[in-house]
């Protein structure tokens, strides 16, 4: 079938769709952005994209000068974590948020809801309407199709979220999905009173959907690791510059056509793709501004790290960067997702710079720095008299004015994959 223009989309839907795409753009790292823009050029004949693709010849970042992998925050996410992150920009009451998160935790790896609504309702002693609102919220989040209770609902949710929902496809999915499997095209034509071409188009729409949307999240971190920014020192001041991959130029092609001589369909064509090109320019500009503000704020707050190395990393939370930049916490979260910074100490995921901390005698100390100290003390201990977790706790307090309980020391030691003192003990050679 030939592509056809439609005026069925409402302005509110277009705004919602564009907002969703803008959020998606912010989450992309440089490599993912290039893939997205290549797709946009294929879909929009009026735009041209120019990007500085040359990536500096960085020394492969031994993940921060060869520090142990156990120091690192895992940059991947499970489905529940990915979905819950989207609640950051939702204004939910604490009770309702608990109800929603309970539902998210009840999703299986494919994204389907595994708990009955009555059981969900009973767990919180609430009413049916509240549970319905919680389910509706979950089903509005990404990836499209999550929160469904069966295959029909999963596919229908994805169709409703498409740019131009097909009522025919939705009806077929809801009522006659098995007819597609049996190739009963003629029966579908008779049932809905439409042409074979219309049925074939609806079937193609349905076959393009994903029956297990949850597993899409698992493959979300598979792109090559290329730095999104470089931190360097200039005249004694630490600065950060975004790599060329994050600064594409979008040009809207001007064919110098006399639009007054075009047909209404042709004018609609040019107007549609010109508007989409202008929106893309604006969205990319906003993305660049957000990344620039967030990266610079992180560098300002982690000066000690850049001056002296990773063991001097300070505690930092998303909200501190949000307050300094004037951005929402959810925006900061998306800006750092899957992004990497090249530094003089190696290449680090931006999330690495957000660390929990404890209060020390000289100020807050990051968990990373404490782990580093524990590892250093163990590496220099007397192997015939290895340091117990209690002794390590006392040394941190006495030598570094850092109060850490024995239980916390044990937790960090296990995270470093270091055995207990009894298993580290070596007997003297006779």
Automatic annotation (TrEMBL):
Q: Cross-referenced InterPro entries, in alphabetical order?
A: RNA_pol_sigma_54, RNA_pol_sigma_54_core-bd, RNA_pol_sigma_54_DNA-bd, RpoN_core-bd_sf
In terms of superkingdom, the source organism counts as Bacteria
Q: Decide whether keyword Transcription regulation is in the record.
A: yes
Q: Which residues form the RNA polymerase sigma factor 54 DNA-binding domain?
A: 269-426
Tagged with keyword Transferase:
yes
Family matches, as Pfam families: Sigma54_AID, Sigma54_CBD, Sigma54_DBD
- What keyword terms does UniProt attach to this protein? DNA-binding, DNA-directed RNA polymerase, Nucleotidyltransferase, Sigma factor, Transcription, Transcription regulation, Transferase
Domain RNA polymerase sigma factor 54 core-binding residue range list: 74-252
Q: Which NCBIfam families match?
A: rpoN_sigma
Q: Which family does it belong to?
A: Belongs to the sigma-54 factor family.
What name has this protein been given in UniProt? Answer: RNA polymerase factor sigma-54
Which source organism does the UniProt entry give?
A: Salinibacillus aidingensis
Q: Its gene?
A: rpoN
């Amino acid at each position: 079938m030939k592509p056809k223009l439609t005026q069925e989309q409402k302005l509110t839907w277009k705004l919602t769709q564009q907002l969703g795409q803008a959020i998606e753009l912010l989450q992309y790292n440089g490599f993912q952005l290039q893939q997205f823009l290549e797709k946009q050029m294929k879909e929009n004949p009026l735009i041209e994209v120019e990007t500085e693709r040359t990536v500096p010849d960085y020394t492969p970042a031994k993940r921060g000068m060869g520090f142990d992998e156990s120091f690192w925050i895992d940059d991947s996410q499970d489905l529940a974590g990915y979905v819950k992150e989207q609640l950051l920009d939702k204004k939910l009451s604490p009770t309702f948020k608990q109800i929603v998160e309970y539902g998210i935790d009840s999703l299986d790896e494919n994204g389907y809801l595994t708990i009955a609504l009555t059981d969900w309702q009973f767990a919180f002693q609430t009413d049916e309407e509240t549970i319905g609102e919680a389910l509706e919220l979950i089903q509005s989040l990404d990836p499209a199709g999550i929160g469904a209770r069966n295959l029909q609902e999963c596919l229908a949710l994805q169709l409703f979220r498409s740019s131009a929902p097909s009522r025919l496809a939705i009806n077929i999915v809801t009522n006659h999905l098995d007819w597609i499997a049996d190739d009963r095209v003629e029966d579908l034509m008779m049932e809905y009173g439409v042409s074979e071409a219309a049925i074939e188009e609806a079937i193609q729409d349905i076959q393009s959907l994903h029956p297990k949307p949850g597993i899409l999240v698992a493959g979300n971190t598979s792109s090559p690791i290329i730095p999104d920014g470089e931190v360097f020192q200039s005249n004694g001041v630490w600065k950060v510059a975004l790599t060329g991959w994050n600064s594409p130029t979008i040009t809207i092609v001007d064919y110098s056509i006399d639009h007054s001589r075009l047909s209404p369909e042709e004018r609609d064509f040019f107007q549609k793709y010109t508007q989409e090109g202008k929106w893309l320019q604006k969205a990319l500009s906003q993305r660049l501004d957000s990344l620039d503000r967030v990266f610079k704020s992180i560098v300002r707050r982690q000066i000690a790290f850049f001056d002296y190395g990773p063991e001097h990393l300070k505690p930092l939370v998303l909200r501190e960067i949000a307050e300094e930049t004037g951005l929402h916490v959810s925006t900061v979260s998306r800006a750092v997702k899957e992004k990497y910074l090249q530094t003089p100490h190696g290449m680090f995921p931006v999330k690495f710079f957000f660390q929990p901390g404890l209060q020390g005698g000289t100020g807050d100390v990051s968990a990373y720095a404490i782990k580093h100290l524990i590892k250093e003390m163990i590496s220099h201990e007397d192997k015939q008299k290895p340091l117990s977790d209690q002794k390590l706790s006392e040394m941190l307090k006495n030598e570094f004015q850092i109060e850490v309980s024995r239980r916390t020391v044990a937790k960090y030691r296990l995270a470093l994959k270091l055995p207990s003192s009894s298993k580290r003990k070596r007997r003297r050679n006779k």
